[in-house]
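::Encoded backbone::
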Amino acid sequence: MRRIATVCIILVALVCACIILPQEDQGVPVSAGFPAIQRRVLLIPLDSRPPCGRFVQNAARIAGIEIILPPAELLDEYFRPGDTAALQSWTTEHLADCDAAILSVDQLLHGGLLASRQAKKTIDDENALLHFLQKLRAAHPNIPLYAFSILPRMTPPDGLCDWEEQKRLMKYSRLRGRISREAHPKGEDLAALEELRASISPEILAQYEKLFADYDSFGTRLISLAENGTLDRLVIGQDDSEPYSIPNLTLHRFSELLAAKNIGENRVFLTQGADELALSILSANEAEREDFSPRIALLYNAVSTPDRVLPYMGTTMENTAREKIRFARGTIALSPDAADFTLYLSANDETTKRNRGTAAAEINTLLNENRAVALVDLSEHLCLDETLLPELIEAETPIHGLAAYAGWNTASNSVGTAVAHAVLLQIAQRRAQTETEAISVAAAHISFLDGRFLEDCYYLKDVVDHLNYSLEKCGAQNGRGLEYNYNYPLGSLLLENAIENRRNRLIHTAAYQAPFRFKTKNAALRLRATDFTATAVFPWPRTFEIDLRIDNLRLHKDD
C-alpha cells in the first residue's frame, strides 16, 4: 500500500505540473513540412540506441537526406547482439537503391557496440567481414562506402574479472600508457608497473591485453581496405578514453602507420568518440559534395575550458574541438566576424558555474549581431545548474537563433554532434532557393534543436535523477536497471509525464517564443516557433537514454 500511495503522489504532482495555460500564437502560421528528399544514404548504425540512428535521421533531413536503416529486428537490443549475417544480406540487397553507405564495422561484425566489447568473434569472422566489404565494393563501384570502427575501451569487458581486479587492470593500463610516452621513464614508475603486473591474474591480464593486440591487427587490415579504395573513408573512434591508457598506444601506432604510408585524414581519420561518428561522417561527406569548407570560430565560457579534460575523454576540450572541425573539412576562423559559425564551448563545474550569466550574455550578443552559434553545453557533474541553457532562457535569449545545441554524454559526443548539425544547416541554407524551401529547412532544424534542448539539457541534467529517485522510492533496487515486467511500465509513465512537463515549461518561455532570423541564399525570414509535441520511451531497459520524438512543430512568420 505504501508503494502504491507513493506512485499516486508522484503521478498527481506530475500531472498538476503539466497544467499550464497556452499563449496566443503570434505572426502568420506557415506550413512546416520538411525539405524534399534529394539523396538516400544507407546506414548500419553502431547500435540500436537513438543517438546512433534516429539522431542521424533527424539531422539528415535538414539537408534533404533520407537515412535508410535496417529493420529493428535485425539490430541489437541491449545485451542481445544484432543478426550480423542478416544485416550483411540486408545491406547487399538495399545498397543499390542508395547514393552512399555509412557502415558500422562493430554492428556488421559483432552485432553492436556492447557485443564488440566481449570480442567473441574469431579471425575467420573478421576475414568474412573484410571479404563482405570487398564484395560490396566490387558490386557497387560507384557508390561511396564509409565505414567506422571503435577501438576497445580501457575499461575491462563485463565478466572478465571482479571489481577489485578491474581497478588494478585500469591502474595498470594508465601507468603503462604514461610510461610508454616517456623517453626516460622513472625507475619508481617501472617498479610500480611490475608490481601491478604481479598483482593481476596472468590469465586475466593476457585476455585484457589480447583485446588490444587483436584490434591492432584487425584495424591495420581495415586501414588497408581504405588504402586500396575498397572503402572511400575509414574512421576509427576511441570510446570512453583517458589521457593515458593501453588503447592510446594502439591509436598512436595507427597514427604512425598512416604517416608512414602517407595516408591522409580524408582517407582514414582517427578520432575521439563513438556514438556520434555516423552523423559526423554524414556531414563531412555532404560538405565534400558541396565543396564546402566551413570557417569555424572557437569561443569558450571560461579561460580554463580549452585545457579541461572532461570525464571519459583522452584529450582537452580544445583538441577535441579542433579534431571535430578537421573531421568536418573545416578551418579555424580567427573571429566570429570571419566565420560561417562560432562553436561556443561551455564546460561548467562548481567553480565556473557562477559565471554562466556572463557566458549567456556573450552568446546573446552574438545572436543579436546575427552570428550563427553552435553551443556545446557541458556539465562536469551532469546537473542542470551547471548548464547554460537555463541562463539563456532566463535572459529571454532567442534560443532558436542557435545553429546547433548539444550537451549529451561525453565531450566528443556533444562537440561532434554540434559541429555536424551546424554544418548540415549551413549546407541546407545555401541550397534553399525559395521561401518555401527555406521554411522547410528551418522546420527540420528547429525540430532537431528542440529535441536537443529537451533531451540533452532537461532530461539528462534534470529528469533522469528525479526519475531514478522516484523508482527507487517505489521499491526498485536500481533505478537505472528496468525490468520489463516490474518497473519498466512505471518508469515509462513517469518519463512520459516528466517530458510533457518540461515541454510545457519550455514552450511557454519568452526565449522559446522569441522571433529569430533565418537566412538562406534567397530569403531572409523572421520566424517564431510556438509549439511542438514530444513523446519519449526507453529504447533499452535502462534510464540512461531515451528515444525522444519531436513532432507537430508550429512555425509562424512575422509580418
